[in-house]
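Hello again,

I reread your note about wanting to compare the complex against the isolated chains. To keep things tidy I'm splitting this into two emails, and this first one only covers the full assembly. Below are the input lines as submitted, including protein chains and any nucleic acid or small-molecule components. They are followed by the predicted structure of everything together. The single-chain runs will come separately.
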Amino acid sequence: MIDNLLLGFQTALTPENLLWCFIGVLMGTIIGLMPGLGSTTGVAILIPLTLTLEPVTALIMLAGIYYGAQYGGTITSVLISTPGEAASVVTTLDGYQMARKGRAGAALAISAIGSFVAAIISLALLMALAPPLADLALNFGPVENLAIMILGLVIVVSFAGGSMARGLMMAAAGLLISTVGVATGFSDARFTFGNIDLLGGIPFVEVMIGIFAVGEVLYQIRIGAAEPIKARFRDMLITKDELKRSAGPIVRGSGIGFALGILPGAGSTLASFMSYGIEKKVSKNRRLFGKGAIEGVAAPESANNAAANANFVPTLALGIPGGGTTAVLLGAFTIYGLQPGPLLFETQPTLVWGLLVSFFIGNVLLLILNLPLAPVFAQMLRIPYGFLYPIILLTSFIGAYAVSNNMFSVVLVLIFGLLGYVMKELDMPVAPLVLGLVLGPLFEKALVQTSALGQGDFSIMLESPISVVILALALLMGVGPMLLGRLRVARRSRRSVTESEKVDV
Amino acid sequence: MASTTAKFAAIGAVTLLALTGCSSAAAGSTSGDQEGGFAPSGDARMIVPFSAGGGSDLSGRAIAAGLEEVTGVNISVENREGGSGAVGYSHFLAQEGKDNYLLAAETAMLALPLTQDVQFDYTSFTPIMKLGDDFTLLVVAPDSPYETCTDVVDAAEKERVVAAVSGATSLDEIVFTLVEDATGVSFDRVPFESGSEVLASLLGGKIDVASLNPGEVLGQLESGDLKALCSFSEERYEYDQLADIPTAKEQGVDVSFAQFRGFIAPGGITDEAREYWIDAAKEFEQSDAYAEYIESNVMQANAVYGDDFVTYLEGNNADLQKVLQ
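Full-complex prediction:
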């Protein structure tokens, strides 16, 4: 272990590798700032640039891009309510509200700190336990994934701001949108009306750019846009109290993110939503959620970064990608002539440990780069809206086109921009829609697979101990609060009855 | 200052052969003359109908780089994704007659017209080169009772054998259907979305058998986490790690089916243009870049060109039709 770490540091700490890591982090952050361009696209489009580098150096740079792009997406989530990828959608809920209140600097700082802590925790676990953890993750098949999806839906269904009915409605709308296209295991197209652009379904990146960026701009224009936010530099810094409030959410978020991240397929989006949902249930400040609670930024940001790092557990230990970006990275392994698989740790120790240590360095660089820059980025909000909004619209459409080189994406952004505007007018929560859209296909896939495994009989969900435990947890979380509430109401009414009786007597 | 520039130029000339190839593209018309009077009008484009970073993208970029080197024509790669490939192929259909467009093709070119309402089929295009074949291996867990593909077929006759497939029109689905047709048994399917998902479920013991590309399982075969029973190929693989795996035919299951990778030009281009790209492709086949591509993806290098490629597609299409319709 120590030898391996030393080897890793020797590999990663060469000036050349450090430089490329830094360039990767910087380029990633810039890419993440573009609406719609997340880490998966960022890594994919920059792979050709790395072909002339040594494999280790190239992978170190790509990992830097991965981390940078994630943080870049967070910046836009907080400042202009435009997430770079699905995993930072939740961050917009409280991050954007904090920005509106002049606390953008604090929101960005806590994201950087939370992400850093989460990364360190998960990297330590990754270094120490990757192979056994990966074996553990293999126990999660379709049946267990279905149970996790159910648990996830139960946890997040209630978090949609005030009204549960509105949240459910939006989640259902998202699920409905996700049914467009060809489903897992079938070759028939649904709801495509002969349009070939719809065969692959409605891509969530376009939906996200439309609903969040374009929708928000349209809404701000309609309400006559508030004054630019002028916060003093001193107010941009994070306070001690905010740091203290964030400690718990960061640790819990890291745990949830890591646990979900090591499972191939479950993913960081679910992790960020779940950690937010859980904080909303356990936090002392739960009333502030949705109105700019720093816990609501710290938890999901830690969770999605922990998941991003945990994704490397199955990727490096088994050669099975843990998420979209790691799948692209695995493709890059082949380009560099490396054979991903269980023997990678043994046959390529320099590469694996160099990479792991460089993940660590990448996260340190990200923190050094972004903590001081957080207040600077926040100054973006001082740009008068007359200039800021056209820029947002322009980059949104360019981003949408760049993802697929297809004008249809731009049309989709327009349509969903209008939809997002209407939703804001009607005060409909948008995050559940995105969750429905992202979870829909995953949920359906697990459902189809479980049904196939059980030959149509879903009782196989009760044969797997793991899925039984998860389902029990879901039941507890779903029904528990309701029962508790009933109990409380009953007790209170009994007390008031006895009190009124006393008065009568 | 000038000497540093010169040094850089020298290094560039030695190491970046591809780049020097590009710079000589200015003299493209002369090299074009040597190949029968035709040169593509301007820079060429390689359309990849799937997203950056996937298997199609990798092959598209390898072909583009290889052709760039032999022709001196600048070839830019463009990902036109969407609709499981349908968007890219349809876009390509609209480029009819343009001899500077190419597309990195694979099985979706045949599967899409058979399953979806699209305007094209393989006869709409001008097939240029099939690079090679990606067959599949039947793989099981190391403690599985099956030792040969015949064992699996015999078991499927008597009891439930759960096979994972990575899609309704995927290579493994086709292979299992062909085995069913050849032997009269049936497998129970569980659908997944990619080879790596299938791999994870096989390693986790959730399913009994899977049919995966060698490139997807080589790591697991070397580490002993999986064992390969047979390969659904015409001939055994020549790679050291795979040479001991018998073909299904040797074991009495007469099935072989490959996913092809290759490239096509739009329909309606002139014969000279077609010959130009075929000649360039033949030259590419002799290059190290080609060998490297085939080896890193653990494929079998059965390159065919032009009319032979069309004949191949006809047979492949007939097989697919049996499975999908």
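For quick reference: Chain A touches chain B through 59 residues (CB under 8 Å).

B.
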